[in-house]
Amino acid sequence: MATRILLIDDDELLRDAISDLLESEGYDVAVAEDGNQGLEAFEAVRPEVVITDIMMPERDGIETILALSRETPQPLIIAISGGGGHLDSLSYLKMAEQFGADRILEKPFRAKVLLETIESLMNGEQTTSTTD
């Protein structure tokens, strides 16, 4: 059975590109465009891995990570961000890590880095951050 991944990002082009990449690698992917939709999709799909942007309208990634951290079983969480022009993205990502993200990736990142990050999470490796 394919690993289920929920991708939450308000950038439609990026969401489509990442979804296509993950599906081409054999993952079962559900998508949402903000944290509110993401939490609804989480309840419907119960993914093993959630990839969430930080800067989004409605419910942002930090709020989403906090809500997901209370779920049982808790999904593995990868936070991604380009910063949204407010602060540097690494500051937001470090905050996401403090609130429960298992891994962080700074946009833009390479497809290979995302796939390796997912694989290392699924294998239980303990490294907590990846920026590239």
Topology readout:
Elements lengths: L3 E5 L3 H13 L3 E5 L2 H11 L3 E5 L7 H9 L6 E6 L7 H10 L4 E4 L4 H12 L10
Parallel strand pairs: 1-2, 1-3, 3-4, 4-5
Helix pairs in contact: 2-3
Helix share of residues?
Answer: 40-55%
Flag low-confidence runs.
Answer: 128-132
Task: Please tell me the total number of domains.
Answer: 1
Largest sheet: 5 strands, parallel
CATH superfamily annotation: Response regulator
Q: What is the CATH topology assignment?
A: Rossmann fold
Q: Which series of helices and strands comes N to C?
A: EHEHEHEHEH
Number of helices: 5
Strand order of the largest sheet: 2-1-3-4-5
Structural Rg: 13 Å
Binned strand content: 15-25%
The CATH class label is Alpha Beta
Ends distance: 30 Å
CATH second-level architecture: 3-Layer(aba) Sandwich
Derived structural class? alpha/beta
Mean pLDDT: 90
Describe the overall structure.
β3 (49-53), α3 (61-69) and β4 form a beta-alpha-beta unit. The longest helix has 13 residues, at 12-24. The radius of gyration is 13 Å and the shape is globular. The protein has helices at 12-24, 35-45, 61-69, 89-98, 111-122, and strands at 4-8, 28-32, 49-53, 76-81, 103-106. By secondary structure, it is α/β, with parallel strands linked by helices. The termini are far apart. The protein has a single domain, classed as Response regulator (Rossmann fold), CATH 3.40.50.2300.
